[in-house]
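R.M. (postdoc): so does anyone remember the format we settled on? I'll just put the structure tokens first.
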């Protein structure tokens, strides 16, 4: 199996990156790759996992609860502080 160095597009959607990452894990678990191929697949998987983590973190930061303090005043509570 010939592997070439791949770069992950920063515009990749989370679901697509996760799907590709799962396939990389399957390839590694198959035991059919050479050591060099395994290292390359692993590096690509690490890049994908970083992109997934970055996208999850960005989504987490966007998810804030708007709490009405009064009719004209609002407060944003960070996602981790939400009870529900």
């Amino acid at each position: 199996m010939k592997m070439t160095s791949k770069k992950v597009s920063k515009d990749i959607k989370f679901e697509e990156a996760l799907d590709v990452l799962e396939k990389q894990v399957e390839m590694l678990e198959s035991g059919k790759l050479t050591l060099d191929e395994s290292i390359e697949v692993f590096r690509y998987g690490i890049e994908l996992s970083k992109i997934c983590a970055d996208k999850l973190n960005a989504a987490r930061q966007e998810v804030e609860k708007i709490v009405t303090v009064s009719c004209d005043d609002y407060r944003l509570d960070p996602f981790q502080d939400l009870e529900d």
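R.M.: ...and that's the designed sequence above, right after the tokens. Also worth knowing: The first strand starts at residue 65 and ends at 70. The chain has a mean pLDDT of 82.
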